[in-house]
Amino acid sequence: MKILVANLGSTSFKYRLYDLGDPHEPMLARGAVDRIGASKSKVSYSSGKGKAEDEVPVADHGEAVRLCLQQLTDPTLGVISSAEEVAAIGFKAVHAKGISGVRRVDDRLLSAMEEFNDVTPAHNPPYVRAMRMLADRFPEMPLVAAFETGFHATIPDRNRRYAVPNDWATDHGVLRWGFHGASHRYIAERSAQVLNRPGLRVISCHLGGSSSLCAIKDGKSVATSMGMSPQSGLFHNNRVGDFDPFALPAVLRATGMSLEQALDVLATKSGLLGICGKNDLRDVEQAADAGDSNAQLALEMFVSSIRHYLGAYLVELGDTDAIIFTAGIGENSPRIRAMVCQDLGAFGILLNSELNETGSGERKISSADSKVEVWVMPTNEEIIVARQARDLLSGTL
Ligand code: AMP
Description:
The protein is of the alpha/beta class.
Protein backbone atom coordinates (compact mmCIF):
# COMPACT_ATOMS: atom_id res chain seq x y z
CA MET A 1 0.00 0.00 0.00
CA LYS A 2 1.43 3.39 -1.04
CA ILE A 3 0.68 6.38 1.18
CA LEU A 4 1.42 10.01 0.40
CA VAL A 5 2.17 12.05 3.52
CA ALA A 6 1.53 15.77 3.15
CA ASN A 7 3.00 18.57 5.20
CA LEU A 8 1.06 21.78 4.62
CA GLY A 9 2.06 25.36 5.28
CA SER A 10 0.02 28.40 4.35
CA THR A 11 2.01 28.76 1.09
CA SER A 12 3.83 25.44 0.92
CA PHE A 13 3.14 21.76 0.24
CA LYS A 14 5.75 19.12 1.03
CA TYR A 15 5.21 15.42 0.52
CA ARG A 16 6.76 12.00 0.83
CA LEU A 17 5.50 8.81 -0.78
CA TYR A 18 6.01 5.59 1.20
CA ASP A 19 5.54 2.00 0.12
CA LEU A 20 4.17 0.28 3.20
CA GLY A 21 3.57 -2.93 1.28
CA ASP A 22 7.34 -3.46 1.51
CA PRO A 23 8.53 -4.59 4.97
CA HIS A 24 11.35 -2.00 4.83
CA GLU A 25 8.78 0.79 4.32
CA PRO A 26 10.92 2.65 1.76
CA MET A 27 10.33 6.29 0.92
CA LEU A 28 9.87 6.15 -2.87
CA ALA A 29 9.91 9.88 -3.58
CA ARG A 30 9.66 13.28 -1.98
CA GLY A 31 8.91 16.75 -3.21
CA ALA A 32 7.92 20.27 -2.31
CA VAL A 33 6.12 23.26 -3.70
CA ASP A 34 7.08 26.56 -2.06
CA ARG A 35 5.57 30.01 -2.52
CA ILE A 36 2.17 28.71 -3.63
CA GLY A 37 0.13 31.60 -5.05
CA ALA A 38 3.19 33.67 -6.06
CA SER A 39 3.94 34.44 -9.72
CA LYS A 40 6.64 31.75 -9.63
CA SER A 41 6.45 28.83 -7.21
CA LYS A 42 9.52 26.73 -6.48
CA VAL A 43 8.90 23.08 -7.28
CA SER A 44 11.30 20.28 -6.36
CA TYR A 45 11.12 16.50 -6.62
CA SER A 46 13.44 13.61 -6.00
CA SER A 47 13.20 9.84 -6.25
CA GLY A 48 15.63 6.95 -6.68
CA LYS A 49 15.52 7.79 -10.41
CA GLY A 50 16.78 11.36 -10.11
CA LYS A 51 15.93 14.91 -9.14
CA ALA A 52 14.06 17.80 -10.76
CA GLU A 53 13.61 21.47 -9.93
CA ASP A 54 11.43 24.03 -11.63
CA GLU A 55 9.85 27.45 -11.18
CA VAL A 56 6.26 27.60 -12.38
CA PRO A 57 3.13 29.35 -11.13
CA VAL A 58 1.15 27.11 -8.74
CA ALA A 59 -2.12 28.81 -7.85
CA ASP A 60 -3.23 26.83 -4.79
CA HIS A 61 -2.81 23.60 -2.80
CA GLY A 62 -5.14 21.69 -5.17
CA GLU A 63 -2.84 22.58 -8.06
CA ALA A 64 0.20 21.59 -5.94
CA VAL A 65 -1.25 18.09 -5.36
CA ARG A 66 -2.09 17.74 -9.04
CA LEU A 67 1.54 18.62 -9.82
CA CYS A 68 2.79 16.14 -7.22
CA LEU A 69 0.73 13.30 -8.74
CA GLN A 70 2.09 14.30 -12.16
CA GLN A 71 5.67 14.10 -10.84
CA LEU A 72 5.05 10.75 -9.16
CA THR A 73 3.70 9.27 -12.42
CA ASP A 74 6.26 10.95 -14.72
CA PRO A 75 7.59 8.38 -17.26
CA THR A 76 11.24 9.27 -16.49
CA LEU A 77 11.48 10.18 -12.78
CA GLY A 78 8.14 8.82 -11.54
CA VAL A 79 7.79 5.85 -9.19
CA ILE A 80 4.19 4.77 -9.80
CA SER A 81 2.31 4.14 -13.01
CA SER A 82 -0.95 5.83 -12.07
CA ALA A 83 -2.34 8.12 -9.35
CA GLU A 84 -4.74 5.31 -8.33
CA GLU A 85 -1.76 3.54 -6.75
CA VAL A 86 -1.78 6.18 -4.00
CA ALA A 87 -4.07 4.62 -1.40
CA ALA A 88 -4.45 7.78 0.69
CA ILE A 89 -3.02 11.16 1.57
CA GLY A 90 -2.12 11.33 5.27
CA PHE A 91 -1.90 14.64 7.14
CA LYS A 92 -0.23 15.44 10.45
CA ALA A 93 -3.23 17.42 11.73
CA VAL A 94 -2.91 19.42 14.91
CA HIS A 95 -6.11 19.95 16.89
CA ALA A 96 -9.89 19.62 16.64
CA LYS A 97 -12.63 20.14 19.20
CA GLY A 98 -13.90 16.75 20.35
CA ILE A 99 -11.84 14.73 17.83
CA SER A 100 -8.41 13.12 18.20
CA GLY A 101 -6.64 9.97 16.99
CA VAL A 102 -6.68 9.02 13.30
CA ARG A 103 -9.75 9.86 11.19
CA ARG A 104 -10.96 10.16 7.62
CA VAL A 105 -11.27 13.82 6.65
CA ASP A 106 -14.92 14.82 6.28
CA ASP A 107 -17.04 17.92 6.90
CA ARG A 108 -17.53 17.12 10.58
CA LEU A 109 -13.78 16.82 11.14
CA LEU A 110 -13.03 20.04 9.27
CA SER A 111 -15.69 21.94 11.27
CA ALA A 112 -14.26 20.52 14.51
CA MET A 113 -10.80 21.78 13.47
CA GLU A 114 -12.27 25.20 12.66
CA GLU A 115 -13.75 25.36 16.14
CA PHE A 116 -10.17 25.34 17.48
CA ASN A 117 -8.78 27.84 14.92
CA ASP A 118 -8.13 30.36 17.69
CA VAL A 119 -6.42 27.74 19.89
CA THR A 120 -3.96 26.82 17.11
CA PRO A 121 -3.94 29.94 14.91
CA ALA A 122 -0.70 29.10 13.07
CA HIS A 123 -1.68 25.50 12.26
CA ASN A 124 -5.41 24.86 11.81
CA PRO A 125 -6.48 27.59 9.35
CA PRO A 126 -4.03 26.68 6.52
CA TYR A 127 -4.65 22.93 7.05
CA VAL A 128 -8.42 23.27 6.98
CA ARG A 129 -8.31 25.48 3.89
CA ALA A 130 -6.05 23.07 2.00
CA MET A 131 -7.82 19.87 3.15
CA ARG A 132 -11.19 21.30 2.12
CA MET A 133 -9.81 22.15 -1.31
CA LEU A 134 -8.27 18.68 -1.74
CA ALA A 135 -11.48 16.93 -0.63
CA ASP A 136 -13.29 18.97 -3.29
CA ARG A 137 -10.78 18.45 -6.09
CA PHE A 138 -9.90 14.79 -5.43
CA PRO A 139 -13.16 13.29 -4.12
CA GLU A 140 -11.98 9.76 -4.94
CA MET A 141 -8.75 10.06 -2.87
CA PRO A 142 -9.08 9.03 0.81
CA LEU A 143 -7.74 11.82 3.04
CA VAL A 144 -6.65 10.79 6.54
CA ALA A 145 -5.91 13.13 9.44
CA ALA A 146 -3.55 11.81 12.15
CA PHE A 147 -3.93 14.21 15.05
CA GLU A 148 -0.87 15.31 17.03
CA THR A 149 -2.93 14.95 20.20
CA GLY A 150 -3.61 11.23 19.58
CA PHE A 151 -0.44 9.84 21.19
CA HIS A 152 -1.25 11.67 24.43
CA ALA A 153 -4.69 10.07 24.93
CA THR A 154 -3.04 7.76 27.50
CA ILE A 155 -2.02 10.61 29.85
CA PRO A 156 -3.76 10.02 33.18
CA ASP A 157 -6.22 12.70 34.39
CA ARG A 158 -3.87 13.80 37.18
CA ASN A 159 -1.50 15.07 34.46
CA ARG A 160 -4.17 15.92 31.89
CA ARG A 161 -6.55 18.18 33.79
CA TYR A 162 -6.12 21.84 34.63
CA ALA A 163 -7.40 22.91 38.06
CA VAL A 164 -10.40 24.70 36.53
CA PRO A 165 -14.11 24.04 37.08
CA ASN A 166 -14.97 20.56 35.79
CA ASP A 167 -17.30 21.82 33.06
CA TRP A 168 -14.40 23.69 31.40
CA ALA A 169 -12.85 20.27 30.84
CA THR A 170 -15.98 18.27 30.05
CA ASP A 171 -17.88 20.85 27.97
CA HIS A 172 -15.16 23.00 26.44
CA GLY A 173 -12.24 20.60 26.07
CA VAL A 174 -9.92 22.63 28.32
CA LEU A 175 -7.30 19.92 28.93
CA ARG A 176 -3.59 19.37 28.49
CA TRP A 177 -3.96 17.79 25.06
CA GLY A 178 -0.27 17.72 24.17
CA PHE A 179 1.21 17.92 20.64
CA HIS A 180 4.17 16.59 18.61
CA GLY A 181 2.38 13.24 18.96
CA ALA A 182 3.84 11.75 15.76
CA SER A 183 7.38 12.60 16.84
CA HIS A 184 7.02 11.34 20.42
CA ARG A 185 5.32 8.17 19.11
CA TYR A 186 8.24 7.60 16.73
CA ILE A 187 10.69 8.01 19.63
CA ALA A 188 8.60 5.63 21.79
CA GLU A 189 8.60 2.95 19.08
CA ARG A 190 12.20 3.42 17.98
CA SER A 191 13.61 3.50 21.53
CA ALA A 192 11.68 0.30 22.31
CA GLN A 193 13.42 -1.36 19.33
CA VAL A 194 16.88 0.01 20.10
CA LEU A 195 16.94 -0.36 23.90
CA ASN A 196 14.79 -3.48 23.85
CA ARG A 197 13.84 -3.68 27.54
CA PRO A 198 10.46 -4.44 29.04
CA GLY A 199 8.55 -1.51 30.57
CA LEU A 200 10.93 1.04 29.04
CA ARG A 201 10.80 4.55 30.55
CA VAL A 202 12.07 7.34 28.34
CA ILE A 203 11.93 11.11 28.23
CA SER A 204 11.55 12.30 24.65
CA CYS A 205 12.90 15.83 24.14
CA HIS A 206 11.54 17.18 20.84
CA LEU A 207 13.47 20.46 20.51
CA GLY A 208 12.90 22.37 17.30
CA GLY A 209 11.11 25.45 15.99
CA SER A 210 8.53 24.37 18.52
CA SER A 211 9.49 22.14 21.42
CA SER A 212 7.99 19.72 23.90
CA LEU A 213 9.08 17.01 26.32
CA CYS A 214 7.12 13.81 26.83
CA ALA A 215 7.41 11.18 29.58
CA ILE A 216 6.86 7.75 28.03
CA LYS A 217 6.27 4.59 30.05
CA ASP A 218 6.05 1.25 28.27
CA GLY A 219 5.36 3.00 24.94
CA LYS A 220 2.63 5.27 26.30
CA SER A 221 2.64 9.01 26.93
CA VAL A 222 2.07 9.70 30.64
CA ALA A 223 2.84 13.45 30.68
CA THR A 224 3.84 16.13 28.20
CA SER A 225 4.81 19.76 28.41
CA MET A 226 2.37 21.25 25.90
CA GLY A 227 -1.16 21.79 27.15
CA MET A 228 -4.38 23.06 25.59
CA SER A 229 -2.45 24.66 22.73
CA PRO A 230 0.97 24.37 21.07
CA GLN A 231 1.77 27.81 22.50
CA SER A 232 2.35 26.31 25.97
CA GLY A 233 5.02 24.32 27.83
CA LEU A 234 8.64 25.10 26.92
CA PHE A 235 8.94 28.31 24.99
CA HIS A 236 9.38 28.10 21.24
CA ASN A 237 11.16 30.01 18.47
CA ASN A 238 8.49 32.74 18.46
CA ARG A 239 5.78 31.41 20.81
CA VAL A 240 5.55 32.11 24.49
CA GLY A 241 5.34 28.73 26.23
CA ASP A 242 3.94 28.60 29.78
CA PHE A 243 2.54 32.00 30.79
CA ASP A 244 0.37 33.39 33.55
CA PRO A 245 -2.95 34.56 32.02
CA PHE A 246 -3.31 37.13 34.82
CA ALA A 247 -0.44 39.12 33.30
CA LEU A 248 -2.68 39.94 30.34
CA PRO A 249 -5.01 42.55 31.90
CA ALA A 250 -1.99 44.55 33.08
CA VAL A 251 -0.48 44.55 29.57
CA LEU A 252 -3.79 45.37 27.87
CA ARG A 253 -4.44 48.27 30.27
CA ALA A 254 -0.92 49.69 29.93
CA THR A 255 -0.60 49.38 26.13
CA GLY A 256 -4.17 49.72 24.86
CA MET A 257 -3.72 46.46 22.92
CA SER A 258 -6.79 44.31 22.30
CA LEU A 259 -6.85 40.73 23.58
CA GLU A 260 -6.39 39.50 19.98
CA GLN A 261 -3.33 41.72 19.50
CA ALA A 262 -1.79 40.54 22.77
CA LEU A 263 -2.46 36.88 21.87
CA ASP A 264 -0.81 37.49 18.50
CA VAL A 265 2.29 38.85 20.29
CA LEU A 266 2.34 35.74 22.50
CA ALA A 267 1.92 33.42 19.49
CA THR A 268 4.26 35.09 16.96
CA LYS A 269 6.62 37.59 18.61
CA SER A 270 7.61 35.89 21.85
CA GLY A 271 9.86 32.92 22.68
CA LEU A 272 13.48 33.24 21.49
CA LEU A 273 12.40 36.04 19.17
CA GLY A 274 10.85 38.07 21.98
CA ILE A 275 13.86 37.69 24.25
CA CYS A 276 16.67 38.41 21.80
CA GLY A 277 15.18 39.33 18.41
CA LYS A 278 16.26 36.08 16.70
CA ASN A 279 14.11 33.01 16.29
CA ASP A 280 16.52 30.48 14.81
CA LEU A 281 18.64 28.84 17.49
CA ARG A 282 21.70 28.88 15.20
CA ASP A 283 21.48 32.70 15.08
CA VAL A 284 20.91 32.87 18.83
CA GLU A 285 24.02 30.73 19.48
CA GLN A 286 26.08 32.86 17.11
CA ALA A 287 24.89 36.11 18.72
CA ALA A 288 25.63 34.73 22.21
CA ASP A 289 29.16 33.84 21.07
CA ALA A 290 29.57 37.42 19.81
CA GLY A 291 28.71 38.73 23.28
CA ASP A 292 24.99 39.54 22.90
CA SER A 293 23.72 39.26 26.48
CA ASN A 294 20.05 38.90 25.44
CA ALA A 295 20.98 35.97 23.20
CA GLN A 296 22.91 34.38 26.08
CA LEU A 297 19.88 34.92 28.35
CA ALA A 298 17.60 33.34 25.71
CA LEU A 299 19.83 30.22 25.63
CA GLU A 300 19.90 29.97 29.41
CA MET A 301 16.12 30.48 29.70
CA PHE A 302 15.46 27.86 27.00
CA VAL A 303 17.67 25.32 28.79
CA SER A 304 16.07 26.16 32.16
CA SER A 305 12.61 25.51 30.74
CA ILE A 306 13.78 22.15 29.35
CA ARG A 307 15.36 21.18 32.70
CA HIS A 308 12.17 22.20 34.51
CA TYR A 309 10.19 19.52 32.64
CA LEU A 310 13.11 17.08 32.59
CA GLY A 311 13.21 17.16 36.39
CA ALA A 312 9.44 16.73 36.60
CA TYR A 313 9.55 13.71 34.29
CA LEU A 314 12.49 12.04 36.05
CA VAL A 315 10.28 12.12 39.13
CA GLU A 316 7.14 11.09 37.19
CA LEU A 317 8.87 8.03 35.71
CA GLY A 318 10.80 7.13 38.84
CA ASP A 319 13.45 5.04 37.15
CA THR A 320 14.30 6.49 33.74
CA ASP A 321 16.10 4.35 31.17
CA ALA A 322 16.87 7.03 28.60
CA ILE A 323 16.68 10.67 27.66
CA ILE A 324 16.32 11.13 23.91
CA PHE A 325 17.02 14.32 21.99
CA THR A 326 15.28 14.82 18.65
CA ALA A 327 14.13 17.45 16.06
CA GLY A 328 16.11 20.39 14.61
CA ILE A 329 17.71 21.59 17.84
CA GLY A 330 17.75 18.26 19.69
CA GLU A 331 19.53 16.55 16.79
CA ASN A 332 21.89 19.38 15.84
CA SER A 333 22.88 21.46 18.85
CA PRO A 334 25.55 19.79 21.03
CA ARG A 335 25.64 22.99 23.10
CA ILE A 336 21.96 22.75 24.12
CA ARG A 337 22.32 19.01 24.86
CA ALA A 338 25.39 19.69 27.01
CA MET A 339 23.70 22.55 28.87
CA VAL A 340 20.60 20.41 29.51
CA CYS A 341 22.65 17.52 30.93
CA GLN A 342 25.16 19.64 32.87
CA ASP A 343 25.75 18.62 36.52
CA LEU A 344 23.07 15.91 36.53
CA GLY A 345 25.43 13.18 37.74
CA ALA A 346 23.40 12.93 40.96
CA PHE A 347 20.47 11.80 38.79
CA GLY A 348 22.58 9.17 37.01
CA ILE A 349 22.95 11.30 33.86
CA LEU A 350 26.51 11.55 32.52
CA LEU A 351 27.08 12.90 29.03
CA ASN A 352 30.21 11.88 27.09
CA SER A 353 31.29 15.22 25.66
CA GLU A 354 33.21 13.72 22.76
CA LEU A 355 30.24 11.58 21.68
CA ASN A 356 27.96 14.59 22.13
CA GLU A 357 30.06 16.82 19.92
CA THR A 358 30.96 14.37 17.15
CA GLY A 359 29.08 11.92 14.97
CA SER A 360 25.74 12.22 13.31
CA GLY A 361 22.46 10.37 13.06
CA GLU A 362 21.10 7.98 15.67
CA ARG A 363 23.62 7.41 18.46
CA LYS A 364 24.18 7.09 22.19
CA ILE A 365 25.98 10.11 23.65
CA SER A 366 26.16 9.20 27.35
CA SER A 367 29.20 7.76 29.15
CA ALA A 368 29.45 4.02 29.66
CA ASP A 369 28.84 4.55 33.41
CA SER A 370 25.75 6.78 32.97
CA LYS A 371 22.80 5.03 34.64
CA VAL A 372 20.39 6.88 32.36
CA GLU A 373 21.35 6.52 28.69
CA VAL A 374 21.31 9.69 26.62
CA TRP A 375 20.61 9.38 22.89
CA VAL A 376 20.22 11.47 19.77
CA MET A 377 17.51 10.00 17.51
CA PRO A 378 16.44 11.70 14.30
CA THR A 379 12.66 11.75 14.37
CA ASN A 380 10.46 10.56 11.49
CA GLU A 381 6.97 11.95 11.89
CA GLU A 382 5.99 11.17 8.30
CA ILE A 383 6.46 7.40 8.59
CA ILE A 384 4.22 7.43 11.69
CA VAL A 385 1.48 9.29 9.77
CA ALA A 386 1.86 6.88 6.82
CA ARG A 387 1.54 3.83 9.12
CA GLN A 388 -1.47 5.33 10.89
CA ALA A 389 -3.21 6.06 7.57
CA ARG A 390 -2.52 2.48 6.43
CA ASP A 391 -3.84 1.06 9.69
CA LEU A 392 -7.02 3.15 9.48
CA LEU A 393 -7.68 2.12 5.88
CA SER A 394 -6.99 -1.55 6.57
CA GLY A 395 -9.14 -1.51 9.72
CA THR A 396 -6.30 -2.54 12.08
CA LEU A 397 -6.14 0.68 14.12
P1 AMP B 1 12.45 21.72 13.39
O1 AMP B 1 11.26 22.53 13.84
O2 AMP B 1 12.55 20.41 14.06
O3 AMP B 1 12.56 21.65 11.89
O4 AMP B 1 13.74 22.53 13.89
C1 AMP B 1 14.10 23.74 13.28
C2 AMP B 1 15.03 24.48 14.19
O5 AMP B 1 16.18 23.70 14.52
C3 AMP B 1 15.62 25.72 13.52
O6 AMP B 1 14.77 26.83 13.65
C4 AMP B 1 16.89 25.93 14.32
O7 AMP B 1 16.56 26.73 15.44
C5 AMP B 1 17.26 24.56 14.82
N1 AMP B 1 18.47 24.04 14.20
C6 AMP B 1 18.61 23.44 13.01
N2 AMP B 1 19.90 23.13 12.78
C7 AMP B 1 20.60 23.54 13.85
C8 AMP B 1 21.99 23.50 14.22
N3 AMP B 1 22.92 22.96 13.43
N4 AMP B 1 22.33 24.02 15.43
C9 AMP B 1 21.41 24.56 16.23
N5 AMP B 1 20.08 24.62 15.94
C10 AMP B 1 19.69 24.12 14.77
